[in-house]
Amino acid sequence: MIDSTESSQRAKPHRATSPCIEVAGVSVDTRHYIGGERVASDACFSNSSPIDGSFLGEISRGGDSEVQLAVQAARDAFPGWAATSPSARAAILHRIADLVEQNLDALANMETLDNGGLLRSNLRGVMPRVAHNFRFFADWLVEHLDVEDFETRGHTNHVSWDPSGVAAIITPWNAPLMLATWRIAPALAAGDTVVLKPAEWTPLTASFLADLTKQAGLPDGVFNVVQGYGAEAGAALVAHPGLSRISFTGSVPTAKTIARAAAENLTPCSFELGGKSPCIVLSDADIELAASLAVEQYDNAGQVCLSGTRLLVHESIAAEFTAAFTRKVESLVQGDPRDPLSDIGPQVHRTHFERITGFVDRAKADGATIVFGGEQNSRLGGLYFRPTLVDEPTPGSEIVTQEVFGPVLTMQTFATDEQAIELANGTEFGLAAVVVAGNRVHAEAITTRLVAGTIWVNCFFVRDLRAPFGGSKKSGVGREGGTWSFDFYADVKNTVVAPNGWKE
């Protein structure tokens, strides 16, 4: 996962001309949302669409003062929200989900304009998942968050999940609202209050969500949004001593910076970080299935941390696989993400586009073969980078060890299962893996030795919020989903009651 602030050049501060802008047919407030009110900053930053570079609006640029206000608002609201019954908290979360569904078209179009994601994907999958995030954790709180009491030498043990305080949530730009609500929903369900710092490249849906929470009856101060740059608003937020939890999705270098700041206050952190996942095609694999799954790794213009960008193919089927894969890639349509016929849209930002270009250019210079792609789509121009396959890159080079986060796959061959496993586990990441196999026993022999938080066998991107999600090695710290999410956002407590001493 790549952070928007990691290498972007920040513009000089300036003032916004209006607090609201018209996007996707709805009004979006460009100010922060703090304590149930809109708060402007003296400075702003510009937001543009990656589709065509069109100007979207000026967004309030927060820093330490806005963070201080937001955390204080969240702290003031915490006692009341923590005392709210689980069923009442769940009811509000369901109302938020209802409002998301009522505004689904607007949210989908808004996010497509903001980050260049396919509109059809936002309509069919992403925004419905936003609503599902709220419903799932609301229901899990009421129906599943319990452990049966157990006895120890006649003493009763009762486990509970108590609200912990203020959760700071810092989210990325590749699926802004879905990834944000994946954290916001369990934090609110657990009884925490929230300060959200969205990515500055994609600020719009977070702001619109704030209005929906207000309409749903969420008490003022329970949910707050501070817009701004990571080095300013984000840094001030994670260093705040009033936080109980920090959730961050982004890059390893930024996670290290956050961890150092959090250490000063011993604030618990959950990190979803980068990936460099393998897609392993075994000798007995169905070639057409393998090629289809490989094409799926270009989803969202390659801006998916879970993508199996390293194709590891058995040497006996490499030629046949490459031919099938190339045919399928040639059928992909790259274009305006609002067009339902488009399969691949633009990269999110010029800075990120240039980052991807740099990776590919250096791989070329290092002697790697570009089977197809490797450059800007000259017909579309702008931020449209062609789907790319890099064949047999230099082992250990950056193109196979570092996260590119774009439509760039590498292909390496192997002769034995041992070689496949060594290659698959040969990076500092361990977020996910894809295995394509024609034999169940063979597949299991591979999956049991892979270091990854999620492994898909003969499929990709099948997700269930009941399952644990998180990365191994430098791909993350912690697990989310079901009770695992509550284990992080809540203070888990065991109350032991003796059988004697009672006077009643």
- Percent of residues in β-strands: 15-25%
Q: List the domain count as a whole number.
A: 2
Task: Tell me which CATH architecture of the largest domain applies here.
Answer: 3-Layer(aba) Sandwich
Specify the overall morphology: globular
CATH superfamily of the largest domain: Aldehyde Dehydrogenase, Chain A, domain 1
> How would a crystallographer describe the biggest sheet?
7 strands, mixed
Please describe what this structure looks like.
This protein is α/β, with parallel strands linked by helices and 504 residues long. The protein has two domains: 20-273 and 480-493, Aldehyde Dehydrogenase, Chain A, domain 1 (3-Layer(aba) Sandwich), CATH 3.40.605.10; 278-457, Aldehyde Dehydrogenase, Chain A, domain 2, CATH 3.40.309.10. 38% of the residues lie in helices and 21% in strands. A hairpin with a 6-residue loop joins strand 5 and strand 6 (55-60). The longest helix is centred in the first third of the chain and has 25 residues, at 119-143. It is globular. The mean pLDDT is 96.
Main features:
Aldehyde Dehydrogenase, Chain A, domain 2, Aldehyde Dehydrogenase, Chain A, domain 1, 2 domains, 6-stranded mixed beta sheet, 38% helix, alpha/beta, 24 strands, 7-stranded mixed beta sheet, 504 residues
Strand and helix layout:
Layout: E1 20-23, E2 26-29, E3 32-34, E4 37-39, E5 44-48, E6 55-60, H1 64-83, H2 86-102, H3 104-115, H4 119-143, E7 150-152, E8 155-163, E9 166-170, H5 176-189, E10 193-197, H6 204-215, E11 223-225, H7 230-238, E12 245-249, H8 252-265, E13 269-272, E14 278-281, H9 287-296, E15 310-314, H10 318-330, H11 350-365, E16 369-372, E17 388-391, H12 398-401, E18 408-414, H13 417-424, E19 429-430, E20 432-436, H14 440-447, E21 454-457, E22 472-473, E23 476-477, H15 482-489, E24 490-497
Parallel strand pairs: 9-10, 9-12, 10-11, 12-13, 14-15, 14-20, 15-18, 17-18, 20-21
Antiparallel strand pairs: 1-2, 3-4, 5-6, 7-8, 8-24, 13-23, 16-17, 19-22
